[in-house]
Design brief:
The protein is α/β, with parallel strands linked by helices. The chain has a single domain, classed as P-loop containing nucleotide triphosphate hydrolases (Rossmann fold). It has nine helices and five strands. The protein has a five-stranded parallel β-sheet, with helices on both faces. The radius of gyration is 16 Å and the shape is globular. It starts with a strand and ends in a 5-residue tail after the last helix. The protein binds adenosine monophosphate.
């Protein structure tokens, strides 16, 4: 199946969970830039060492680093027929970089999924996740910072994708399975 997708939504909207479930369903890899960065931090690589302090503060890792990482990942054979990008693109420069990479492969996005959730629900979920996972960037300050960056830099990207006819917006509140079904239904014939 061919499905080249981006999933967007603020931290805590459940997009990581949904990206993984949807990826299994569609038979494509879920590619989370946050997970790749975290794996590098854990492995003590140069990339990880460069990214750690930035991530802990809730800021964005510089575009040159992030774009190069995504370009390399999308060149892997398992992404040839499709992928779900989770956490990327996050700003206008990354949107442009992604378009360039895909154009270089002679392909384009099939859809951009946007998961919505209100701020109170997000803060409640992020608080629970901080207690469960112990992520070093789930401090109150870093959470605030990440939500602010999302609102300022990432959420506005949906307008551009909507203008290109790619945006599919889905309510992220509900049981995990329910939300997955909504996503599958909303994607409809866009993938296949
Ligand atoms: P996430 O797991 O998506 O919340 O990402 C965790 C952290 O990794 C972010 O707060 C950023 O510091 C970094 N990161 C992940 N994706 C990106 C991206 N597309 N651009 C810049 N930084 C990113």
């Amino acid at each position: 199946m061919s499905a080249r997708l981006v999933i967007m939504g603020p931290q805590g909207s459940g997009k990581g969970t949904q990206a993984a479930l949807l990826a299994t369903r569609l038979g494509v890899p879920a590619i989370s830039t946050g997970d790749i960065f975290r794996a590098n931090v854990k492995g003590g690589t140069d990339l990880g060492n460069q990214a750690k302090a930035i991530m802990d503060a809730g800021d964005l890792v510089p575009d040159e680093i992030t774009n190069a990482m995504v370009r390399d990942r999308l060149a892997e054979p398992d992404a040839a027929e499709g992928f779900i990008l989770d956490g990327y693109p996050r700003n206008a420069a990354q949107v442009e970089a992604l378009d360039g990479v895909l154009a270089g492969h002679g392909v384009g996005l099939d859809a951009v999924l946007e998961l919505t959730a209100d701020r109170d629900e997000l803060l409640a979920r992020l608080g629970r996740r901080a207690a469960l996972e112990g992520r070093t960037d789930d401090t109150a300050e870093a959470i605030e910072r990440r939500l602010a960056i999302y609102e300022q830099q990432t959420a506005p990207l949906t307008a551009g994708y909507a203008a290109r006819g790619l945006l599919v917006t889905v309510d992220g509140i509900g049981q995990v399975d329910e939300v997955t079904e909504r996503l599958v239904a909303a994607l409809g014939a866009r993938v296949g």
